[in-house]
Design brief:
2 domains, 5 helices
Amino acid sequence: MIEWSFINSVGLLLVGAALSFFAAWYWFHRSTNARAAEAAALENKALLARVAELERLNALVTQAVLPISAAFQAILIKELTHFHTPIMDALMVKLGPPLILTETEEQELVAALKKREHDMGDQISDAERDAARMLPMVMKRVKAEIDADMTTTLQVVAVPDEKPAKE
């Protein structure tokens, strides 16, 4: 007959084997989950960096896309800015962007531009005189674009390369 000591030994052997199996299974899955969490954290970090880069590029594109009228206004302002006309220069700075010029200041600026256009004689060049004449018209155009809230949509267009036909 089988002795109880043998059955006890086999039972303890099976319990020890089961405990060893579950301990190994636990540690294996714990290390697998830790590696998966590290990989997910690295992927998340890479995605956050990519989103930050895309936001930076979007900001650059948004800054680069100016309505033509606003860009032309900036060119005229640059031509009309002089150290000896601080009041007019301060008003032109308020043209923006952003546009913070009040109606009263706008009327003062238009009057100063007309004075520069007509009363300065030989003290200014014809190009500056033309700029003083054009700026009020361009200001109206820029203001109308701002009021109309014209948004610019960028579209990517593929243009195929024209390759010469092989003979």
